[in-house]
Design goal:
The structure holds two protein chains of two kinds. Chain A has three domains: 64 residues; 136 residues, Histidine kinase-like ATPase, C-terminal domain (Heat Shock Protein 90, 2-Layer Sandwich), CATH 3.30.565; 122 residues, Rossmann fold (3-Layer(aba) Sandwich), CATH 3.40.50.2300. Chain A contains eleven helices and twelve strands. Chain A is α/β, with parallel strands linked by helices. In chain A, the strands form three sheets. A five-stranded mixed sheet of chain A has the order 2-4-5-7-6. In chain A, strands 9-8-10-11-12 form a five-stranded parallel sheet, with helices on both faces. A two-stranded antiparallel ribbon of chain A has the order 1-3. In chain A, β11, α10 and β12 form a beta-alpha-beta unit. Chain B is an alpha+beta fold. Chain B folds into two domains: 280 residues, no CATH class; 91 residues, no CATH class. The two termini of chain B are 46 Å apart. The chains are: A alpha/beta, B alpha+beta. At the A-B interface, α1, α2, β1, α4 and α5 of A face α5 and β14 of B.
Chain lengths: 457, 414
Amino acid sequence: MDLDRPRAVPEDASPRERELLEENARLRRIAAALMERVESVGVAGAAPYAAFEHAVLLAEQVRERTEALQQTLAELHAAKAEAEAANLSKTRFLAAVSHDLMQPLNAARLFTSALEDHDLPAASTRLVGHVGRSLTDVEALLGTLVDISRLDAGVLEPDTAPFPVARLLDVLAEEFRHMAAARGLALHYVGSEAIIASDLALLARVVRNFLTNAIRYTEHGRILLGCRRRPDGLEILVGDTGPGIPEAQREAIFLEFQRLGERRDAEDRGLGLGLAIVDRIAGILDHPLRLASVPGRGSLFAVRVPFGRLPSSPARAPASAPAWEGDVLAGMRVWVVDDDPEICEGMAALLAGWGCGVRTATCLADLDTALETQAPGEAAEVLLVDYHLGEGDPDGLSVAARLRERQPGLAVVVITANHDASIKSLTRQLGYGCLLKPVKPLRLRMQLVGLRGGGSV
Amino acid sequence: MREPFPASPGLAGMAVEGAVDDGTADEGPADESVPLYTAVSQRGDPRAAARELADALCHPELGFVLFFCSAEYPLAALSEALNAAFAGVPVAGCTTAGEIAPEGYGRGCIVAIGLDRRHFAVSCALVDDLGGFDLMRAQRLVDGLLDDCRDRALAPLAEHSFALTLLDGLSSCEEQVLATLDAALGRIPSFGGSAGDDNRLAHTHVHAEGRFHGQAAVVVLINTRLPFEVFTTHHLRPRGEKLVVTRADRERRRVLELNALPAAEEYARLVGLPVAALDAAVFARHPLAVRLGEAYFVRAIQRVNDDGSLSFYCAVENGIVLTAMRPAPLLEDLEAVFDGLTERLGDPALIIACDCFLRRLELETLERVDAASRLMARSRVIGFNSYGEQHHGMHINQTFTGVAIGSRPAAGGS
């Protein structure tokens, strides 16, 4: 059909015919224009209207993509929030469970410690020793599980401060020397005067883990604990003469539940979580880890810690007597405030074993009675107070503040199951000591010895 | 083992950090709303007008001035006066078909916005050869703007910037220039308006680099930490009637025939008026639009020519289908848009708007100008009546198109 050339109007057409023919002609022209337009669509050209149409299509595409993107983003956000909430509730649950488990464990440890100081038949002493070690294992396992969950939830904030590396390593060396000796290994410790900046407790876990592994996997030979100065920090090294780690497995050992070789002895109850924790802690602290190993000759684990500078306050006098000497605590008047009567009793037994004079209180009312009945010259030297007291009572810090009003010189050690750095740093600001639950008798003893020796916490 | 108890170094460190001065002594806290200075001058004398604007806008941190002025001003003298008044501060703007001042619609005046360099990094470029503006040049221009902005950028450039385009409204080049520019801008949203000349349709001008230019465009890239949204709206709804362009002169943007009949005649028949009665007010009330997808884009009629053809403000083509449109309540639509913007951005610190002069004409016919002024003043609109608007590379007509800028930086700086 030739749309451009309208039919000629016959001479004898009626007006109606004429009208229809004219309309027909117009419609042909409209059809022709539309066809021209349709056929020019998609032709790349510089026609202005085409540019406009192109811009509209583009804008529409952009709008659609943006919408799709926003939709996806919103879904991702929702999914992330859900996952975070689930993770948080898991962490809270674990924290709650661990807190509840720690309390009786704490009491059991204190009782066992007290029992060890009694004169018992040799057979009983051995049994008590087994109970004590089992409790230690349970506690370690529980702590490890809680730590992994806390590290994963990102709730653990490092509490970094400068300190002499010897403060950490001297104690660890002492502790592990016995453990190594028990397995017929020699522990060779080279001390250092360096000052480092780190979270002492977290760093201790890293080095402790290195040492535990070294002792666990080394059949004979020796363990080395030492430091090496590097330009960008102090490297704390733990070496052993164990079987070494094949190249292929050096990454895998930092994953959960990975253990090398078959362990045969019953004492070994680890879950294989140790290095997974080390890896996470090192990440949080931003301390690079290093592993060198020659299969058959031994392994070397190292963590690099930045150097620190101590604030220029006069050096604290060292404790006057070693913590393990017999009667340094004899006659020390210690008050214990804890809402758990079991803990109070356990503490009392332990402290009494060290020769301390102990008074306990499980609530404020108890405490007030104790204060009223105390004879002159019987004022407490040290207050051991649980941070979380019973419902209705203020927290341990308030109790401490109250007692300090009456006795300004009173030394305070706060005990808490809450591993957040915030309480620790709060107590530090107040000049109080702080111990984490479950209270380890040796730590408690060292705190008390320190108080007796240096005076201030 | 004793824990270390150093005197809390964290606290001391924080105190020192808090006292650090970044050199902007009078800057308020970050959560305080950012002031955006705007001004208007009714004075006809260029020097007096420029002086008045400078008095209101000048402060040590003034980084850029954007203005819209009546085409009545002697433009060369106005350029000179502005350069003198804002010594050293870059100034860009255009002539209008009416101004939107802080108090609402104005006429014969000059309005201006002062952008604080602490909150806005601005760079500006002139395109003085619209015909030769190809993709290569567009890319160079955009790269230049981004480079210029980068050093002073207050937030990531790609996500926190928008482009404002001001075009000579009688150049008949908007479509290609905009599509090209948009391609070069990529993800950066753009909007703008075509300069006007108080409906005389003779000469429109844009201002940059110290003087006014015809057949030219100005591109202003604005980077800010403040939240913003580029938007467009119109209040026109489709009717049933369709008109097919059967003959067009694309170079001159003229439609000679609609439905194979002389264009003016056919349009007059559609609106039920004699051809002689067709004027801008009629065009404003009875617009024609093309439909693309689900959206209608008004193709505004500029005038009736002696040969019975219609001139348009935008590109036309043989075979395009025009849908007759009817206006819905204009201010209700605008208010809903402002409400939505406020919901998303908080109370706007400023809305820069390109408002088609045909909308103002409709408001004048309906005697709703005062109500419109109140609504715009409440939403802090500054802008001008345009001969066409620009949105994401599209040249559109009879719309209210602009950018709303929130008064507080988005939380988290995202």
